[in-house]
Each structure stands twice: as C-alpha cells, then as structure tokens.
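Hello,

I think I submitted the flavin mononucleotide job twice by accident. Can you confirm which output corresponds to this input? Input:
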Amino acid sequence: MNETLRIQCSHRSIRSYKPDPVSEEMLNNIIVAAQHAPTSMNAQEISLIVVRDAERKAEIAELAGSQPWISQAPVFITIVIDFHKTDLGVRKAGQTQIIQESIEGFGVAAVDAGIVLGTMITAAESLGLGVVPIGGIRRNPQGMIDLLALPPLTFPLVGLVIGHIENNAPQKPRLALKTFRHDEHYDASHYADAIDVYDAEILNYWQQLNRADGMTWSNNLGAALKQVYFPHVRPVAAMQGLLNDK
Ligand SMILES: Cc1cc2nc3c(=O)[nH]c(=O)nc-3n(C[C@H](O)[C@H](O)[C@H](O)COP(=O)(O)O)c2cc1C
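Support: Only one job matched these inputs. Its output is below.
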C-alpha cells in the first residue's frame, strides 16, 4: 500500500477535537486540492463556505440537530450547490439556465459535491487532521441559507468538520466487500447473509465501545430510512429555484 491508500483505508469519522486552530496554510491546501477535483461539464458548480467564528459554528451545531463536534472543532466547511455561479456564465452566453430545476441538475451537483467532500477528507487526513461529514445541515436548510447569506440557485448540501484530533475513534467495520464490488454484472445473492454477519459484527463494535445505544446496521437503517429524515430539503430547494421539475 502506498501512503495515499493507507490514509484512505484508515479513515474514521472523528467526533472529539482539540481547540487548537487549523493553520491557514493547511486549510488552503485542503481547499485547493478539492478545487482541482473533476466536475461535470467543468461546470464548477460547487462553492465552499469556511466558518471559523465560534458563535456561527455554535449556530450551525444547533441547526444540524445539536452536534457538539461542530462547535468543538475550529473549522466548519459548508459544501454549497452553486447554480448562481453557472447562471452568470449561461447569461453571458445569451442563454437561460434551467438545469437546476431538474433531478439531473441536483444529481450532478450532488455527485460533484461528494467528490469535493471526499477530496477534502483525504487531504485533511493526509495532514493528520480529523474530519466528520455533516449531512445534518439539511435538517434546517433555510437556517443555513440565512446564516450563510446564500442567494437563489444555491443550496447547502453537506458540511465537513475539520480539526486536530482529541480522542481518536476506532475504525467502523464495513459490510463484506462482495456487497460493494460486483464484477461484470450485479449480484445481490450474498446480501442477506452478509447483512446477518455485519449486524453481529457492528453490535460487537458498539459493545467494545460500551455504547449501549448501539444498534445493528439493519435496525439503525430501519429507524432512519422509514421516513424522509430531512423533509425540508425538497421545499427549501424549490424556494431556492432548484428541483422544480415534474
Ligand atoms: C454525506 C455524509 C453525511 C454525514 N452526516 C453526519 C452527521 O450529520 N453527523 C455525524 O456525526 N456523522 C455524519 N456522517 C458520518 C457517518 O455517520 C460515518 O461516515 C459513518 O457512520 C461511517 O463511519 P466512519 O466515517 O467512521 O467510517 C456523515 C457521513 C456522510 C458521508
């Protein structure tokens, strides 16, 4: 394994941070690495908002559903879908931009946002920093829009906490690789058995951490996915001028 693969295979989300600041040089390296990532059509329809201010981080922590690691860590980055930026180019070309109203537009931007997120994670971890992605900002997207002064045609999709690690976390096991990698064609024949094995494995993982609230993967998903857990996404995205197609 080379150093990059070792870092990627050692990933774990960190929820315990020292108050020490992340240097501007480190932060800039992480962001510049992410800006070099590919984007669909070279649209570059992603923007990042860096928040270091303690009060603003505390507000984001609450908007995201009381997640204390957002306040604790020195940096919070919001990854924003930014069709406002592309609209300026489209208007300059004398055209009318409509892609943002479609599931295609939201999907493309979500893919590009994910690439930015993943690139920042590897970059930050390569510098010895800890990270945890925060989808919880979609719990109250209007609150994030107001706090960050986001204009129409933009949407705060996901965030990333970055900081110096206080307590390292053990690595969370994954489902068997054969549920992830399919060769030549899709094959779900191993899924049910792999889920049984994984449910037992992850319960054991929680027990080792003395986490009495730890659930099996199946029960955790049962609790989470039986509903649209962030129901404000669709209406707020529509108010921003996104996702308005049939
Ligand atoms: C898009 C995305 C959103 C996430 N949102 C949150 C979040 O709001 N709060 C949190 O504590 N962890 C969040 N996570 C972290 C996941 O819970 C974590 O990646 C998963 O449990 C696997 O654990 P690991 O990252 O330690 O391997 C998020 C991860 C991703 C990729």
